[in-house]
Design goal:
Elements lengths: L2 H12 L3 H24 L11 E6 L4 E2 L5 E2 L1 H12 L3 E4 L2 H10 L4 E5 L3 H5 L13 E4 L5 H110 L3 H53 L4 H129 L5 H12 L15 H21 L8 H5 L4 H31 L6 H26 L1 H17 L14 H6 L2 H13 L3 H28 L5 H4 L6
Parallel strand pairs: 1-4, 1-5
Antiparallel strand pairs: 2-3, 5-6
């Protein structure tokens, strides 16, 4: 009995009646229903999110930016949500949103709080706080939708942050332009400062010279002030003495008016007596002068008569001389008398003057004493003023001393300022030069460049996804996983109808390898049909477009051959328990194949199962064939499947060899499925 006859016999058994044919058709279509329906149902769930109800709460009250423009970030978020086309948004209040999420009316809710815009502009006031979005989810509605909502909230946050960052960056760059302009102004101002510093240096040179002159003058003033202070001391002493003397004079002259009045009366009496005496003396003098005049006339007449008488001149002279001698006493007496008379007249005049002076003195003495009193009072005031002058001079002397010291310090400070002004000139010139250079280094972008730069700063990182291979949709991304599982399920259900090996052939002593192949070939044939149907519907109806169509179809057929061989070997080796083992292997492959999440995310104790079980290699191979990946992964997957195919056929052959001997357990199994 050949292998193909064994396979044909099994197929005839499966198609011997209407119901078996329907059952065979059903198991043939199981992979198609499983794989195609899963792919179709999950083809583009993200594209249908606009039908998923979601609530949005906009409580934002807005804010005002530095330039006075209003900011309504909450409304902007709402507009962006509507424009995005994700979810079916309903705007409501917070209470209805929370109730709706709890009741399942909304899958989740996004809340923009009252201070959202205000928080976005808070960094400008150096009181920064984060603008927060509140996401209300309920995993009882749908876990994955909550996960998607988290991602959506993150995208909204990034969008708002990008806009806020762009606005802040634009203000920042505008500040650069302002700094540039102000730096240019500062450079010009530094140049003007340098000019002014030069003028200041010249002025300080003059000030230094003037300060030196001021210091010299202050020292001269100090010397003169010392002399003046010394004079003020002497003046104070003198005015004190003068005041004391005037007080004594006032005391001494208090009786002077009465005394001068008496003196004037006495002087008047003396003057009158002297005048009377002078009058009498003048009479006597006139008489004496007449006698002397007569003697002279007599002497002249005598001389003339003697000459007439003929007396010689010598005699005449002798006679005249004799007469002079005789008249000498009278002449001398007259001379003395005239002198006395003159003195008496002078005395009478003096006495009159004295009397008049005494009278005038007596008349003036009251005014004199009054003046002395006034002078004494004035001297007291002068003395007080002199004391004040002395004290003021002492203060002035102290001030002048400080002035001299200050003038010296002024000279020293002016000298330092003059030296420093030179440094200021040099520093101002350097500052102007460096500010000019720095102004060129400060960015001064135009409006377009500033806007572009602000957008880049606000959103500095753009993801340029360069997909080496790419699945068009979510369903296409899961297709390798669902198609691989479908073929395993297809192989599993086949042996719910098929017998793993022909007992008749075993009893007839047919070679074990023929029995093994004869039992596997019907399943392989139906698995081939399953793979072709699955590929056709997935590609032509659902719309998955493999990068390598024919190689994908061949890989699916090989997968079906390997999976049916594995399930066949388990049933052949373990009998009814093999179906359970195949189911357990299916479950293990579901969690370790990495069909949805990367297999590295599964618990580490399960990692060896991923390395051993075939479904993970099938998923990897189909991904590279459908999306257009590398050849190495496909070759590895093919090698693994061939190993499983050959190993499974060897296990079936060994099982056929062992089952040529019938045992009581085989005749009456404990469990029959």
């Amino acid at each position: 009995m050949t292998t193909f006859r064994l396979a044909a016999t099994e197929l005839r058994r499966l198609t011997s009646g209407k119901l078996p044919k329907l059952a065979l058709l059903a198991v043939t279509l199981v992979p198609l229903l499983y794989g195609a329906m899963y792919i179709y149902a999950n083809w583009d769930p993200y594209g249908k999110l606009d039908s998923v109800p979601a609530a949005v709460v906009i409580d934002d009250t807005g804010a005002e930016v530095d330039d006075g423009q209003p900011l309504n970030a909450g409304q902007d978020v709402y507009d962006e949500l509507l424009d995005s086309g994700t979810f079916s948004w309903t705007r409501t209040d917070l209470q209805h949103a929370q109730t709706g999420v709890a009741n399942g009316d909304y899958t989740f809710a996004l809340v923009v709080p009252r201070d959202f815009s205000d928080a976005l502009v808070s960094p400008a006031d150096f009181e920064p706080r984060q603008a927060k979005l509140q996401l209300i989810t309920n995993d009882a509605n749908n876990y994955l939708v909550g996960t998607i909502a988290d991602k959506l909230a993150g995208e909204v946050r990034e969008g708002v942050a990008s806009n806020a960052g762009s606005t802040a960056a634009e203000q920042f760059l505008l500040g650069f332009s302002t700094v540039h302009d102000k730096t240019v102004e500062a450079a010009n101002g530094a140049g003007e400062l340098a000019d002014g510093a030069g003028q200041l240096r010249d002025g300080l040179g003059q000030a230094e010279q003037g300060g030196t002159e001021l210091s010299d003058g202050a020292h001269q003033l100090l010397s003169g002030q010392r002399q003046l202070a010394s004079g003020a001391n002497r003046l104070a002493d003198g005015t004190g003495q003068l005041h004391t003397g005037l007080q004594q004079l006032q005391s001494s002259t208090a009786k002077l008016p009465d005394q001068t009045a008496k003196l004037a009366d006495g002087a008047e009496e003396v003057a009158q007596g002297n005048e009377q005496l002078a009058q009498k003396a003048n009479v006597v003098g006139d008489l004496s002068q007449g006698i002397v005049d007569d003697l002279d006339q007599t002497k002249a007449k005598t001389a003339a008569q003697l000459r007439q008488a003929g007396v010689d001149e010598a005699t005449v002279q002798k006679i005249v001389t004799g007469l002079d001698d005789l008249g000498r006493p009278a002449t001398d007496a007259n001379t003395e008398l005239r002198t006395q008379v003159g003195q008496l007249n002078a005395l009478a005049d003096g006495a009159r003057q004295v009397a008049d002076g005494n009278r005038a003195l007596a008349n003036a003495t009251p005014q004199l004493t009054s003046g002395i009193r006034q002078l004494t009072s004035g001297a007291g005031q002068v003395d007080d003023g002199a004391v004040q002058l002395r004290d003021g001079e002492q203060q002035a002397l102290s001030g002048t001393s400080r002035l001299a010291d200050g003038a010296d310090q002024l000279v020293g400070g002016t000298r330092q300022l003059h030296a420093g002004s030179g440094q200021l000139v040099d520093g101002s010139n350097t500052l102007a030069t460096e500010l000019g250079k720095g102004a060129g280094d400060i960015p001064n972008p135009d409006d377009t460049t500033r806007q572009t730069t602000a957008d880049t700063i606000g959103d500095p990182v753009a993801v340029d996804t360069q997909a080496q291979v790419k699945a068009d949709t979510y369903g296409a991304g899961l297709a390798p996983y669902f198609m691989g599982l479908a073929l395993w399920v297809g192989g599993f259900v086949l042996f719910l109808l098929m017998r793993p090996m022909s007992n008749r052939a075993l009893a007839a002593g047919v070679a074990p390898w023929r029995v093994a192949l004869g039992g596997w070939l019907p399943a392989a044939l139906i698995g081939f049909v399953q793979a072709v149907l699955l590929f056709s519907v997935v590609v032509l109806v659902i719309g998955v477009h493999p990068a390598h169509q024919w190689r994908t179809l061949g890989f699916l057929i090989l997968t079906s051959f390997a999976f049916t061989a594995v399930v066949h070997s388990l049933n052949a080796a373990f009998g009814p328990k093999g179906k359970f083992i195949a189911l357990v292997v299916l479950v293990l492959q579901l969690v370790t194949a990495g069909g949805t999440f990367p297999w590295q995310t599964i618990p580490e104790p399960l990692h060896p199962l991923h390395q051993v079980l075939p479904l993970g290699y099938v998923v990897t191979g189909l991904r590279h064939l459908i999306y257009g990946g590398t050849e190495g992964s496909v070759v590895q997957a093919v090698a693994v499947l061939l190993c499983y195919l050959v190993a499974s056929l060897l296990l079936t052959t060994v099982s056929a060899w062992r089952q040529r001997v019938w045992t009581p357990t085989r005749l009456k199994p404990e469990l029959s499925l």
